[in-house]
Predict the 3D structure of the following.
Amino acid sequence: MSDGSPAKRVRRTKAEQRAETLEQILDAAEYLFSKHGLHGVTLRDVAQRVGVHTTLMHYYFDDKKSLFEAVFARRAGVTSGRRMEALERYAAEAGDHPTVEGALHAFLDTDLDLYIQGGAPWMNYAAFGALASITAEGAVLMDRYFDPVVLKLVSILKLALPDTPEEDIFWGYHFVTGSLMNTLARTGRIDRLSGGLCHADDFAAIKQRMARFMAAGFMALAHKT
Amino acid sequence: MSDGSPAKRVRRTKAEQRAETLEQILDAAEYLFSKHGLHGVTLRDVAQRVGVHTTLMHYYFDDKKSLFEAVFARRAGVTSGRRMEALERYAAEAGDHPTVEGALHAFLDTDLDLYIQGGAPWMNYAAFGALASITAEGAVLMDRYFDPVVLKLVSILKLALPDTPEEDIFWGYHFVTGSLMNTLARTGRIDRLSGGLCHADDFAAIKQRMARFMAAGFMALAHKT
DNA sequence: ATTATCTATAGATCTATAGATAATGC
DNA sequence: ATTATCTATAGATCTATAGATAATGC
C-alpha cells in the first residue's frame, strides 16, 4: 500500500518541518485575511485550512495580531525592496531630467509584475494588502514598510515637476495609491460593471494603462495650478 | 433640581422615539463599522455607544448583517440619487458634446460636496463605504446601489470619447473609483507622508484637483491606445 | 533532549431568544 | 393595548494556557 507512493509525512528535519508549517500557516492566513479581514478570521479557521490543531497557532505566533503582522511583513519587504531598486535605477539613468511617467513605470510596473509572476500566493497578498491599507491595524504597517519607497517616488516626481507645489504631488500620489489599492483588491466589481469586458485579475491590462493615465493626471495638476 | 432644565427623556410620541433610537443606532453602527469593519464590531459595542441594552439591537434589526446593510442603504440612496441628477443635468446641458472633465465634475464633486457639507455623520459614512467597497459583504451592496450611476457616467464618457475602446473607459473608471475610495477612507496616511502638508479630511483640496487629474488620465488613454 | 503537535480546559465574549417591565396610545 | 426597553439566560464560539504525546536529534 504505502510503498511506492511517498507517504504524506515524508521524513524531514525539524528545521524543514518548522519552515514548511510556518509557510502553510502564513499562506492560509493570508488567503483568509484577504477575504475577511483581521476580525473576520479565527485562528481555528486558519488551523483548519492548514489541517492542524488550533493551538499550534499559538506555538508559532503570540496571538492573532502578530500572525497578521507576520503575513504583512513576509512580502512587504520584497515588494518594497524591489520597487526601491527600480526607482534608484531609474533615477540614476534619468539623471537630472526624470519624467513623471518614467518614475511611475518604475514604481507601479515593478509592483504589478510581482503579482503577475508570483501566482496565487502573491495575488492573495495583493488583496490582503489592499484591505489592510484602509484598516486601522494596517495603517501602522503601511507606514512602517512603505514610507521609504513612496518618499523616494515623490522625490523623483519633484525633480520631474520642479515648478509644481509639493502639495499637488502628494495629492497626485494619493490618487495613484488609491487606484493601485483598488486594483490589488480585485473585488470583481469592474467585471460586473463592464459586462465581462474587463477582468479585475488582468493586471497586465492595468499595467499597460496605469502609469500613462496617472502621469497625465500629474501633468494636468502641474499645468493648471 | 429637575425643574428648569428639561429632563433627559422628554416626552415623545412612540413614532418619534422609534425614529430617534433608530437613527442613534445607525449613527453608532456607522461610526464603528467605519473604523473596524463588520466583524470588528459587536452588537454590544453599538448598544454601549448608544447607551441602551444589547438586545435592543435585535428588536430593531434581525441580526448584525442586516444592521450593516441598513447603515449602507441609509445614505447610499441619497448620494446615488444626487449624482444621477447631476449627471443627467450635465448630459442635458452638454447635448452631443459632453467633455470627460465635465462628466467627472458632476460625478465626483456632487459626491464630495455631500461629505463636505454633511458633517461628521457623512464623513463616517464615507469611511464606512470605502471599507465596505473592498469587502465581500460590501461588494453586493455596491453593485445594487451604485451600478446605475456608474453606468450613467460611463455612457456620458463614451459620448465624450467616441473613438476610445470601451475597455479603456472602464479601466479609467476603475482608477477613478479607487482614488475616490481612498479619499473617502481618510486613513490619514497622506498626512503623515506629506509631513502635514496635506490632510486626508481636506475634501475641498481633493475636489479642486480630482476631476481635472482623472480627465487628463482618460485623455491620455484615448490618445495613445 | 529537544522540538512539533495535540488534548483538555478555563474564562471571556458574542449572538439570539423568551419573557418581564415601563412607557405611550386611545 | 401597544410598543419600547430591559432582565435573564442558553448555546456557541473564541482566545489562550498547561501539560501530554509523538516525532526528530545527537
In short: Chain B touches chain A through 61 residues (CB under 8 Å). Residues 1-9 of chain B have pLDDT under 50 and may be disordered. Chain B has nine helices and no strands. Residues 14, 17-18, 21, 52-53, 55-56, 59 of chain B lie near DNA strand D (CB under 10 Å from a C1').
